[in-house]
Here is the input.
Amino acid sequence: MVSPFFSLASVLLDIRMLRAETIKDLVGLDIRGFHLNRLIGAGSYGAVYESSSGTEKIAIKASIKGSDILNEAAALQRLYYCQYTPQYYFHEETPTPNGILHTIGQEFLGPDLESLRRKTPWQAIKRPTLVRIAWQALSCLQAIHSYRLVHRDIKLGNFAISLPTGPNNCVTIKIFDFGLAYNYMDENGDLIDDETNPNFSCMKYCAFEVAMGMEPMPKDDVIQLSYAILYASGYDFPRKLRCPPDELLEWKRELLRVPAQILPPLAQFLTPFYAVLGELNDLVPVDHEMLKQKIQESLPAHNASANLYIEMQDGEETLV
Ligand SMILES: *[C@@H]1O[C@H](CO)[C@@H](O)[C@H](O)[C@H]1NC(C)=O
Ligand SMILES: *[C@@H]1O[C@H](CO)[C@@H](O)[C@H](O)[C@H]1NC(C)=O
Here is the structure.
């Protein structure tokens, strides 16, 4: 039995020696033969670096929080053969002169959907592109749920496009950041309780039932995705999130109950999709194929399962 004081002491040591500022200052370091070239993202979780070994380019996520990194590494290993998630390379605890550094090496992806949304005119993604994004994002959820994983942190910033391939710069959407992911079911189909008991109702953009105190389940990933789709359509979701909590809860409830009355004008066309979300529950497995068909029905004149491409428009990378 390891003394709890011992582990607490080592955590304190890590945090003291490797503070949040230094986690963003690791360019030049070599990890598993990969050279950290450039900081490409940073947040409360730590930092992400573009890294390379010869011609091979990967992303290395660095954190001082060993538990999140371990959780993410376990999820990515589980998803090793999944084409909708970044390829996993390694997980390592690297001793540095400043303390222990927890890192994950994973596939290098293109920009995330939140940065792509911000670059579009009026910060609104056009309908034909939006339905193809929604289709592929639902395919991402379908894939991870088939591995009995629930993501629990679905937002535009946690989907990214792959690097473009072919003469037309074809891309696919992948879901990433598995720091809060959870293996919710065993191979017999029995639910596994999360003993760490995280309180997801504190997350403002959580799904309605999660805000009501339920544990996040696969259908709640879908509900969170439905908020992200609204945001991508041009709706000011961050402003809605700043409402008083009871008003926000009421909005989430009504969006499930009477979507046609709640959907903003820009997203009205998606009523067929939003109309079935209120019927989702935790007893019946999520029918992702049916949800994708509802996306297709929302814009019949366009093919929602057609490929996405990255194009330069007015000097900006644009998803079409
Ligand atoms: C979870 O957080 C919410 C709001 O942040 C709070 O009202 C609730 O009491 C918390 N629940 C638990 C079990 O701690
Ligand atoms: C939609 O696009 C997909 C992928 O390119 C293709 O396989 C499918 O046949 C298309 N469907 C229609 C109805 O055009």
